[in-house]
Amino acid sequence: MNATAASEAVDPGEFVVRRTDSGREVLLELAGELDAAGMDRFEEAASNIPQNALVTIDLAELRFMDSSGIRVLMNLDLRSRSEQWTLTLRSPRRQVLHVLQLCDFENRFQITP
Amino acid sequence: METPSDLIPANEEKRMAAVRRYDVLDTPPDGAFDRVTKLAARHFDVPVSIVSIVDTDRIWFKSHHGLEAAEIGRDPGLCASAILGAEPWVVENAAVDPRAMANPLVAGEMGLRFYAGAPLTTHDGFRLGTLCVIDHQPREFSEDDATVLADLADVVMDELELRLASRAIVEQHLVLREQAEHMAGQLQASLLPPVLPEIAGIELASMYRPFDAGVVGGDFFDVFEIGDVCVLAVGDVSGKGTAAAAVTGLARHTIRSAALWAHCPGEILDNLNRSMLLGRVGGDIDYFCTVLVMFARRRGQGMTIDVASAGHPPALVVDRSGASSEVGASGPPAGWYPEAVYVETTVELGPGDRILLYTDGLTEARSSSGLVGVDGVAAQLAAGGTAQDTIDALLAAVDGTLTVSDDIAALVLRVQE
User: Fold this and answer.
1) Cβ of B290 and A67 within 8 Å?
2) Ordered DSSP codes for B219-266
3) Which residue, A34, B146, B202, B229, has most beta carbons within 10 Å?
4) Contact B333 A103 (CB under 8 A)
C-alpha cells in the first residue's frame, strides 16, 4: 500500500464544496472525497451560473473522485456550452488528474495547474 | 393432569390456532403489558394482576404483577373458565363460591379469595386468555368495574393485534425482499455470460459481486471469440437498478453485434457511443457508461492485445515474474458526447502473462490502511498462478478484509505457457 493511500485512511475526507461569487467569476472549491454521496451537493453548489460567467473549479484539496464526479463535470461541460459560460478545472491532484485523463477531459476541459 | 372437558371451549382447536398465530407464548417480558397489569392492580387496589394466555395444558403469563410464577397448569381453571364466556368472569368470594371452592389456588397456600378476569378476544372472536385481577380478600365487583376491566383487556388485545400486524408487515417485507433479490439475480445473470468460453491457448476466469443483492448492478463484462479474435469487455453503467440494467443490456448487446463487423475495439466503442446517444430525447442526458474493450489475438507463443477505453480504468498486466503495469487508453465515457473519438493502444503478452480487466469497485474498496488502489490490487496478483487463482485471490480479499462500497466485476485472461 502506498503512502497516499495510508494518509487517506487517517482522514476519511468528507466531501466539502464552497462557492464564492465575485463579479463574473465563480469559484467552486472542492475538498475531501467526491463520490455518489457528495454528488448532489456539488450539483447544488454549481446551480444558477450567470451567463458569461468565468467558472473555476478548484480541485487542489480534492483527494479522490469517482465516476460520480465525472458525471457532474460532464453535466457542467454541457451546461457551460448551452448557458454560455466558461469552465476551468484547476490544480487537480494525481488521482483526480488520472481520472480526468482516462476520460480524455484534457481535450475537452480547460485544465490549469 | 388433563384439563377437565368442561373447561375446554367448543372451538378449542381453532382457538389454539389463533394463540399460535399471535405467537406470544414464551416471549420475553414487555413494558406495554406490564404497564396495563400495574395500572389494573392500582385501579382495583389488588395485589395481583395478570395478562394470561391459555395454552393447551398451561396458562402462561405475558405479564404478572405481584406474582412470582410465570405460568400455572390449565387445570385449576380460573383463567380457563374466564375464557369460556364473552363477559368478565368474576368470583367475589372463592371460599363460598361453588365454582372455585375446590380450586387449589383457593384451598392451598395462595389463599385466593377474589378473581375477576376479562377475556382477551381477537378481532375474529377467539379468546386467547385474560386480563385478570386477584386478591387474597373477598371483594365486591360492580358492573362499572367489569366494564373498566374489559376495556383494559381490549387495550391488551389492541397491543397484541398491533404486534401481529407489524410482524406480518416485516414478514411480507422479507418475502418481497427475497423476490426482489431473486429477480435482480436473474436479471443480473442475463447481463453476464452464463459460462466463459473455452478458447485454445488462453485461460479465462471472472467474478461478479453485486454490492446489494436486491439491486441489479450497473457493472458488466463479456468475453467471446469471433474468428481468430477473442473479444473482452468490462463496463460500468452509471446508476443502479432496473434503469441501469436496461442500459447495461443495451451496452453488452451493442458490443456483441458491433464485434461482428468491427475491425478494432475503437470502432466498437464508437458504435456503442452512437447507439446510446440514439436514445436521447431533448438533450436529457442522465446516464453514461465506462467501458474497456480488447481484441486479443494469438501471436507466436504470446498474444497481441488492442485496447480502447471509454473513460474506464486501465487493465492491469501482470507478467510471469509478478511485475505489473497498467494498459489503458483515453476516451470519454460512452453515451454522452456525439463527437467522441476512441483511440487504441496495443500491448504484447508473453506466455504466462495475465491481464486483469476490472470495474472501479475493486480499486475503490478499502482496507484498514485506506483505498486499495491499483497498487493494492497489483500486490494481490504478484503471487502468480492461473487465471482462476488470480480471481480466487481477489475474491478472498473482497470477501475477507476489504470493505466494499460498489459492485465489482473482474475478468482475467492468462496466456497459457
Assistant:
1) yes
2) EEEEEEEETTEEEEEEEEESS-HHHHHHHHHHHHHHHHHHHTT-SSHH
3) A34
4) yes
